[in-house]
Design brief:
The protein has about 210 residues and is α+β, with helices and mostly antiparallel strands. The chain has two domains: about 50 residues; about 140 residues, Umud Fragment, subunit A, CATH 2.10.109. Helices cover about 20% and strands about 25% of the residues. The strands form two sheets. Strands 1, 2, 3, 4, 9, 10, 11 and 12 form an eight-stranded antiparallel sheet that branches. β6 and β7 form a beta hairpin. The longest helix is centred in the first third of the chain and has 45 residues.
Length: about 210
């Protein structure tokens, strides 16, 4: 009897085709991972935006500097952020004051004296003193030679602030009865950050 030999052939896919098949099987899982990364990033961004909106609506307050009264520290057109101080404001703080003028305009000034302080100005020498101590004011561009109708020396009552612009000879401030002493509850907040112009972005140090 003639022996019949059976030959079994095993068909093998080429290596490249096998890799393509594996890649095709992995594609759905890879897509799911990529979409999860995108979803997580969008969710994080949404959370950050909501937090910023809450901060700016409830705590932080943006403001624009108008005029030259705070030169050289701030220019007209600068954009800043102020933060209300629960514990009160101190000497040297730059603050935004609401409804400070007869036209109910907001202004930006620097706190020179607080409740209980006695302020004196020597308009001839251009110097400011608080409690008998002449102030060193590196933020002032010119001496304080311009006077208005307030009489000095004066003692600041509790709950009020004496404020001046850094550009002393081009600023209407607590030297004038048009502005006078500021009630602390009129202060919107302490300027803590400048966000425009972009080349001056940074934290404000008093």
């Amino acid at each position: 009897m003639r022996r019949v030999e059976e030959y079994w052939f095993k068909f093998e896919y080429p290596a490249a085709l096998s890799q393509e098949t594996d890649a095709a099987e992995e594609t759905p899982e890879r897509c799911r991972k990529q979409w999860k990364i995108v979803y997580d990033a969008v969710a994080t961004l949404e959370t950050a935006v909501i937090i910023l909106i809450l901060l700016f609506s409830l705590v932080l307050r943006p403001a624009a500097v108008i005029g030259n009264s705070m030169l050289p520290s701030f220019n007209s057109g600068d954009r800043v952020v102020c933060l209300p101080e629960i514990s009160g404001y101190g000497r040297g703080d730059v603050v935004i004051i609401s409804h400070a003028t007869r036209m109910d305009e907001s202004i930006i000034k620097r706190v020179i004296a607080v409740g209980g302080d006695t302020v004196d100005i020597d308009f001839y020498k251009g110097t400011v003193s608080v409690n008998g101590q002449e102030l060193v004011e590196p933020y002032v561009g010119t001496p304080t030679n311009l006077s208005y109708d307030m009489k000095f020396p004066l003692t600041v009552p509790e709950g009020k602030l004496f404020v001046l612009g850094d550009n002393r000879n081009d600023s209407i401030d607590s030297r004038s009865t048009d502005i006078g002493l500021i009630n602390e509850n009129k202060v919107l907040g302490k300027v803590i950050f400048r966000f425009y112009p972009f080349n001056k972005i940074g934290i404000i140090k008093n």
